[in-house]
């Protein structure tokens, strides 16, 4: 676990909001055509945030690098979901 990368990722409000959305994707991305167990399509996250694809791609890359989010490619689309195990390990580490 890279504590510094996690802190960097969490320092940005947009990235924190992405984590909130991905915690309950059925609430925020119910209109996604593919099953949510795959994760949430990057395009859906872009639309919800109202930011450009390149900006969201950079935010998602930081979250993936920190390990807070995993990425899964299906065809030409990337799907993202939270890594709950790492998030819980990070929270436990911070409580020490």
TrEMBL record:
Keywords: DNA-binding, Transcription, Transcription regulation. The keyword DNA-binding applies. SUPFAM superfamilies: Winged helix' DNA-binding domain. Pfam families: HTH_5. The lineage of its organism: Bacteria, Pseudomonadati, Pseudomonadota, Betaproteobacteria, Burkholderiales. InterPro entries: ArsR-like_HTH, HTH_ArsR_DNA-bd_dom, HTH_MetalResp_TranReg, WH-like_DNA-bd_sf, WH_DNA-bd_sf. This is Metalloregulator ArsR/SmtB family transcription factor. It comes from Duganella aquatilis. Gene3D superfamilies: Winged helix-like DNA-binding domain superfamily/Winged helix DNA-binding domain. Residues 1-96 form the HTH arsR-type domain.
């Amino acid at each position: 676990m890279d504590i510094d990368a996690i802190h960097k990722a969490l320092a940005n409000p947009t990235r924190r909001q992405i984590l909130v959305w991905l915690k309950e994707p059925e609430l925020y991305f119910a209109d996604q055509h593919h099953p949510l167990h795959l994760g949430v399509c990057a395009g859906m996250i872009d639309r919800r945030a109202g930011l450009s694809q390149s900006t969201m791609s950079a935010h998602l890359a930081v979250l993936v690098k920190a390990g807070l989010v995993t990425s899964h490619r299906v065809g030409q689309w990337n799907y993202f979901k939270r890594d709950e195990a790492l998030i819980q390990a990070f929270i436990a580490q911070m409580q020490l």
